[in-house]
Amino acid sequence: MFEATCSVLETIIKEGSTYSQRGDANAAYKMITSFQFIFILHLMKEIMGITNVLCQVLQQKSQDILNAMNMVSTTKGLIQKLRNEGWENLFENVVSFSKKFDIDIPELSSRYIQGRGRHQRDHITIEHHYHFEIFNAAIDFQIQELDNRFGEGTTKLLTLSSALDPKDGYKSFNIDDICCLAEEYYPLDFSENEKINLRFQLKHFEVDVLSNPKFQDLRSIADLCRRLVETEKSKIYYLIDRLIRLILTLPVSTATSERAFSAMKIVKTRFRNKIEDEFLANNLVVYIEREIAKNFDLDSILDDFVCLKERKLQF
């Protein structure tokens, strides 16, 4: 791909129809054939190769919480390993690539000159610049971003949430973790008495539901929620049902958030800027969850609307 790109740019430089076109191609060619560009290209390939797996996992519409957290942990570990052990191998690859395409390789022990300013740092070599100011800095930024998005509090919340995951025969089920989840992260959603009763409901739930054939082979917390409703056990274990519904609001999947923002760009037109937030939110729900909305019959919606209160206009 690199060789083909250079070939295309060289052709445009020689045969471009306008001076501007030839000038832009020449500037682009000089940039991509510089040692710094090649170095950053290889560095980004390594970093994005590691983070892409996590990205693909989080893009899935429905994601297992515990697996997602494990993937975050392994991604952090691999990026840290790249920082600690990956410099020499990366630099060797960059040098080999540069020699293959006749790209000038700077003298690493020479002083690094930044721009044309008079005030230069005498103690900074070119090797130091590439190693610490680009390689380490880029990796540290990636680690910091992962820590910010998946901090200790967030990780603990999602890990505790997995205690209700029905996969593999409810292997993660843990009453203490579930009670801790309600007490620490949803204190306003449960009264003190409900927190006490939650533990007793969980004990009954463990004996009743975990061995019930109707609750086997479930793949996600969402499946468990649906099965509780179908069997009407959500009325018996109403506190557990409430906690499960709260867990299901966690934005584990970035795909859901991305669909919401994409819908906002389409739905929030100039006309809809004037409508109230609640009405806009209802519009967004219908647009985002189109598959669910298709299940509702238009006539039934009109009938419900008519039953709300009497109106002068008949539907």
From TrEMBL:
Pfam families according to UniProt: Dimer_Tnp_hAT
Domain HAT C-terminal dimerisation: residue ranges: 232-280
Superkingdom of the organism of origin: Eukaryota
Recorded GO MF terms: protein dimerization activity
Name of the protein: HAT C-terminal dimerisation domain-containing protein
Source species of the chain: Carya illinoinensis (Pecan)
Lineage start: Eukaryota, Viridiplantae, Streptophyta, Embryophyta, Tracheophyta
